[in-house]
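Before relying on records like the one below, remember that each one covers exactly one chain. Contacts with other chains, cofactors or solvent are not represented anywhere in the record.
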Amino acid sequence: MSPTTVAREHANRLAIDGGEPVRTAPLPWELPGAHWIGAEELELVERVVRARSPFRFYGPDLQHMVDTLESEWCSTFGHRHALGVSCGTAALSIAVSALGLGPGDEVLVPGYLWVSCVSAVVRAGAIPRLVDIDDTFTLDPEDLVRKIGPHTRAVLMVHMSGAPGHVQEVARICREKGLRLIEDCAQTAGASSHGQPVGTFGDIAIFSFQLNKNMTSGDGGLITSNDDELFRRIVALHDLGYPRNAQGRLDTSDEDCQLWGVGARMSELAGAMALAQLRKLPKITGAMRDSKWRIRNALSDIPGLSFRTIPDPAGDSGPFLIMMLPDEATAKRFIECVRAEGISGPPGSLACVTMREWGMHWYSNIPSLVHKRSNSRDGFPWTHPANAFGADYDYSAGALPHCDALHARSALIAIASTLTDADVEDIILAVRKVARVVLG
């Protein structure tokens, strides 16, 4: 840092105590792909509109946007099959159904996840079982092995907050135990682990293109698989339960593929947006990764401040910087002070938060899970006789010791995909300035 920056770090009282804040302008919104929407998206969407053909399977002048998205995705990341869908939540439900999971089955899920992960399991009639996380903020392989039981059929590996954890180890365990592996890559499009793209380690992977994600079509998502027969089920389930013929019409003649679909097709308009964003994804993730690691490296010498373990920094997609503080009270005070220094986004943004403020990303903050709520009057799936094995499963705070500890004492700064050098320097300065007082 320059002598002027060093002087600013040491000279001022903290803004929360009446000193001068590091900055007064808000940081950019933490919406990675949205900042890159421009002429390319407009051009492709306009082609669909002018062709009057927004439905992917037939129309007067198909532009094949979703087909092209799927093809380019496979060629970019090495998947055998890819399918555009309406959203990541639907993708998860389709993945669970494609594997035939239901009553009598349990799916192992991490404590740091998103509500859609457990929703997919519960709505299929299966039972989620919680697995602790390690300092990667993803599945702890050791606890995973401990939790595998006679009813375990599948594992959901959630690559949370932009970076994969010990996915190779989790995949190895699943192979050895004969378990299916679903990768939730909703927050990690463009990430990899030691050169291998996320989504290529398990049986099925899902991606999300919702507004908060690395690339966006507003809403939308993708399902990938290298298994031909499994993908055939995925295609039918994402539609109306049946395959389609060459003319794009439903084909009910195949007795081996007569299922119950969810109508989660991706439109050509969403496909056009996602296609343009996919072509920009390396630049989007590259910008976030560069900013994040500049900040992290500049803060690495601060006593009392540690960071999430990322086994392969080169494969990090970069949207979040996760920090660990000594205890919950310190984490709360630390983030209040950092926000007071101007490290915050526009109104409604979650650019700088404690993990206590991170909502349903934590198992114990999902009321429908904690209280075993049901969509039906009979309490299904918790009351199903085949699920009696899960009657004593506890989903309230305290179920996962390490996860709970990280929930209490961790904090997060969102890394926008358009941070300037000045923004990066302000974040570094503010954190160092606060740390000198709060952690000194």
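The chain has 14 helices and 13 strands.
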